[in-house]
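Q: I'm writing up a methods section and want to include an example of the input and output format. Could you take the sequence below and give the corresponding predicted structure tokens, formatted cleanly so I can copy it straight into the document?
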Amino acid sequence: GADAVINPSREDLVERLAELTDGALADVVIVGPAVAKVMELGVKCAGKGGVVLIFMGSPPEEMMTINPFHLYFNEIDLV
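A: Here is the clean output for your methods example:
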């Protein structure tokens, strides 16, 4: 029942998601790989009031960078 499929190796995930949602982005993002780059991308995919669920634990040395301004003013919950 999917309406669209995005291949992030062939197109920009955030841009395509914005096109498909008229700029609203995702309500819920589930990040599976415990890789900082993917977790950061998940946060960028969340729309205003969205929830980002980091599903797997990462290795102890893995560090991610998040813009607190983006989280706060877009009311994104990071779980």
